[in-house]
Structures are given as structure tokens and as C-alpha cells.
Amino acid sequence: MDAPRNHTTVVGQDRPIRLDNGIEIGPVTVAYQTVGRLNADRSNAILVCHALTGDHHMAGVNPVTGKRGWWDGLVGPGAVLDTNRFFIICPNVLGGCMGTTGPREINPATGRPWGPGFPVITIGDMVTVQARLLDALGIDQVFCVIGGSMGGMQVLEWTSAHPQRVFSAVPIASSYRHSAQNIAFHEVGRQAIMADPDWHGGAYHERGVTPHRGLAVARMTAHITYLSETALHRKFGRRLQDREAVTYGFDADFQVESYLRHQGSTFVDRFDANSYLYITRAMDYFDLATEHGGKLANAFRGTPTRFCVISFSSDWLFPTVESRAIVRALNSVAANVSFVEVDSDKGHDAFLLREPEFHETLRGFLDGAARHRGLPALAEARP
Amino acid sequence: MTPDKSFPPAPAGAPGATNGDLRVDLRLIADMVCPGSRVLDVGCGDGALLQVLAQTKGVDGRGIELSMAGVRAAVRRGVSVIQGNADTDLADYPNGAFDYAILSQTLQATQRPRQVLEQLMRVAERAIVSFPNFGYWKARWHLMSHGRMPVTRGLPEEWWETPNIHLCTLKDFLVLAREMDIVIERGVALNEDGTVTRLPAVGPWANLLSAQAVFLVRRRNGGARPGGAAGPARDADAP
């Protein structure tokens, strides 16, 4: 069995990467994970795009947190992303904080962390860097690009910017643009970080501190948006935390408070506050329709890619109507698209959780697409 | 479009359905489709027909299905299907996007059958439409003798639970087709069990003696696409 392998590579050494804001950066370090083996004609690669606070540790044990990867159950021999058949690549995004160039990393020009001097990036820039990574790996076309939430935005950007390089695409619990509500929640998180006196205009690394209180509040707010009301109530209700009665104070009386505080405090151990600012901004700026003259369909005109759009019924952060808008645009250009709304009460986070219906759908789509791509059938795959 | 039906999940890696597994009326429909064509199956259920068409005729197929169970089963078969509704979602497709639009046992369950037909003729060169015949003698007899809405093998539900809200006879369909300038290229009248009768589907005897029918239709002279109440394609790229 092939264990997940973590790598870093450098791209943009000879040819700098031109960002959407016009700034050129390079070289850019990319941290990424691979599982499985690339076949001889390099046609079995699946590119997995992670979400806002994810990273490239999709499978196996994350060395930073000691926890299982965020899609560990989905990746492996015989799993939905079957490593007997597919070569799975998951890069940490540009602006991230797990090894890919971002505000926490050293700016080679100054020898100091980029900090607030890091250029503002976009989803498109993330994809540009991923495309360079594929160039470096010698992969012209991936069999599939797949991702949830912000990962789904990257999937859509991939199909629009590099249609010939994407045989199939699965945007999950995602949207072609950030809504006003999405931007609003992100702004609350950013304001919490920037209001922390330890943020120091983003230059906290130089002062040996981190705005952990602000980042924790940002995480707590965001975490609520990832869950459905039903899921939150089922998990905690109004139950009290290690006590018989309320204390008439502002300690974490309720389990849900204690849970959110825990979520906040563990998050700051692994995530960089500036990265959070930059990546949330990139999501806010994403609008595939506006980028294509106000018509989303223009982003997909003539697309050769097979799409499978998936949403979750209780996701109120990226609700099904957003996915339907993508499907409608794809239909209007007669694209090859499947669309499934998975019945789930787990909210936005459902794409990270054990949802058999979702997993069966994904497995079926990948299997069908693999047949169309001429990849070996299940039984013929290397044992 | 086939409400109240649940589709057993296809086991992963199961061999695809073969022609032999198809319902008789679906097999008839499959025979009407030219190899290598583009097909939209509206109300495609679990995608069995599209899968057979892809495997045996190299058809580039798409499906629309109302029930999520059907959609999931179809996607698991490797068929491209969206969860959607014949009444509202056909408007998303551009003119002439398909060679054939298939509407199998679904017309009578739509809100606006005429508009659905107009949309079919807009998005495809030809349509293949099958539906139960309310003029079948058993339905007539049931209504006449009992004075109640017919419950037959082809129409098994009581009036208050049936998804069939716009039942019609073969003659009704032919009259509408004439009004809409739709040409009948082929018609096949079927028995209750789906076997083919020798009756001409456009004749009076089929309207009395056949339980269902399949029609292959096209616009007259491949002429102007009907606009009418259904209108042109929705400006789907509104966002």
C-alpha cells in the first residue's frame, strides 16, 4: 500500500508568476501531498483542492496536528478516491501557511516573513500556481479536479482557465461567486483579527506574538456557519458544560460555548492569522460571472469537461441554489453535467464527514468518467 | 419525473444494464435513436435507457430526473443527469442542443404538457414521447361501468394519489401535435404489458385497443422553432 507522501517543490524560478493584481512573484514554494502512482501515460491524476482552513494533508496523519487528514476516509486503496487506480495530488494553496508561499513564509527578497507585505491574491492565482505544479510534474491533463467549498471555487476556476487540462470536475458545496452573506461573515472574522492588539498591522511575527484571540474569534464565527442549526442542536442542545446549573457569569456554561472556544484555541495553534486574512479575501473576490462579462455561461462555453456538481440540502453557507446556478449555466452551453443535492442535515461541513450518499455518488461519477477516459476498469486496476 | 418510484442502488462496479433488462417501451425508444446522436432523456429515472444508448449506440446522453434516488442511481451508472423538472428546467438548454429529446411516460405528469412539448421541439430536432392512453377500452369501461376514475394496470393509482395530472388519449395527442405543427414520423401502439400491437398508432382502433403508445415526432420541415408560451431558452446566464 502506498502511504501518502508529502513534498515541496519550487515553481516560477525562471518565469515569475504574474498575479491578478499585476504583481509578479517567484520563485514560489509549493507544499503538496501525493498518494498512489502516476500511470505511464500520466492520465490518472486527480487534483484535490482544499478548503479555506484545510491544507495538503488530506490523507494519513497530519504531522502538524497529529490528527487524520481532512479527507483521510475518502482516499486510499479501494476508497472513493481509489489509490489503486488514481494518482492523487493535493497542494497547499498559495497564501497558505503549511509550506506553500504565503504571508508566514520568508520573502526571499528580504529574508524576513512576508507578513502584511504579501500581495493580495485570488482564487485564480492559487490555480495558476497549481498549474505550474502540474507542469513541474509533467501532467498535461488531470483526470479530475475535485474540491469542496473554496476547493470547489478552485475547481470552477480550473475548468474556466484551463479547460483542456481538466477531463472531469467535481465542485462540491461551492459557488461561482461569494455572496454578500459570505463576504459579511468573512469580514467579521477579519475585523476580529485586526482588532487584536497583537496583530500589529500584520507585523506580529517581528514582535514575537500572534493575534491568537482575534483569530480564535474568527474561527468561532466561521465554525457556526459550517454547521446546520439541526446539527448544532443535536450535538449540544442547551446542555451545560461540567456543571449542574448556570453560574450567573460569563464562563462557558453551555457545552456549545465550550466547544467553540476549543475550536478557536486549537485552530490558532495550526493556522496563521495573516493567511486567514489573505485567503478569505481571495474567496471574497471570486466571481466567475463578473470575470466573464457578467455571464457565468461564458466561463464554460465550449467546455470539454465532464462536471458533477454536488450540494448538501442543509448547507446554508453555500446553499443548493448556488450549485443550481452553476448547473444552469453549464446546461445553457450544453455542457456535460450531473447535479446531485445530497440529503444531509449536517450543514456545509457535510463534505468533510461520513455521508454515504455523497460518497456513493462521487464514486459512481468517477467510475463513469474513468470509463470515458479509457482508464482501466475497477477489476483491471492494479491490486 | 417518475414520482414515488425508488431505484435500488446499483452495486459499485456492477455490470451495466443490457438491452434485455430494459422495459419494453424503453427498448422500443432505444431502437428509434440513431447511433452517435445527442440525446436528452427527460424523466430518465435511474438512467437505464441512457446507459444502454451509450453502450450500444455510442450516444452522447444527458438526463433530467425529479427524484433524487433516480439521479443518484443514474450518476452511479456513469450517466450525466441533473436533478430537475420537465416543466421548468428544459428552458435552460440552448436551441437544437440535441438530436433527440425523450419523454417517456412523463408527459401526463407535467404541469403544462403543451409547453413541455414546445420546449422539447426547441431543444431537439426530434422528440420521442410515450404515454398511457386514457382512451384505452378498459379505462373507458371502468369509467362507464363504475362511474369512477379508471384504475388499470397502466394507471394503477387512485385519482387522489396519481402523479398523472394531465392524462390524454392517443387522439388527444395527435390533435395537439397537428395544432403545434408537429409531424408524426413513427407511432407504435402497445398493449398493457408493453408488447407491440399491429394497430396503426394514428388510427381509431389503437385509440380504443392500445394501452399506451410511443411516437417519434419532429417539427414540420425542420422549420422555425416554436416560441409560443414556452418561449425561447431562458437567459440562463442571468447571474
UniProtKB/TrEMBL annotation, chain A:
One of its GO terms (cellular component) is cytoplasm. Substrate binds at residues 219, 349. The keyword Transferase applies. Residues 44-353 form the AB hydrolase-1 domain. It is an enzyme of class 2 (transferase). Pathway: Amino-acid biosynthesis; L-methionine biosynthesis via de novo pathway; O-acetyl-L-homoserine from L-homoserine: step 1/1. It is found in: Cytoplasm. It comes from the Bacteria. NCBIfam families: homoserO_Ac_trn, PRK00175.1. This is Homoserine O-acetyltransferase.
TrEMBL record, chain B:
Coiled coil: none annotated. It comes from the Bacteria. InterPro entries: Methionine_synth_MetW (IPR010743), SAM-dependent_MTases_sf (IPR029063). SUPFAM superfamilies: S-adenosyl-L-methionine-dependent methyltransferases. NCBIfam families: metW. This is Methionine biosynthesis protein MetW.
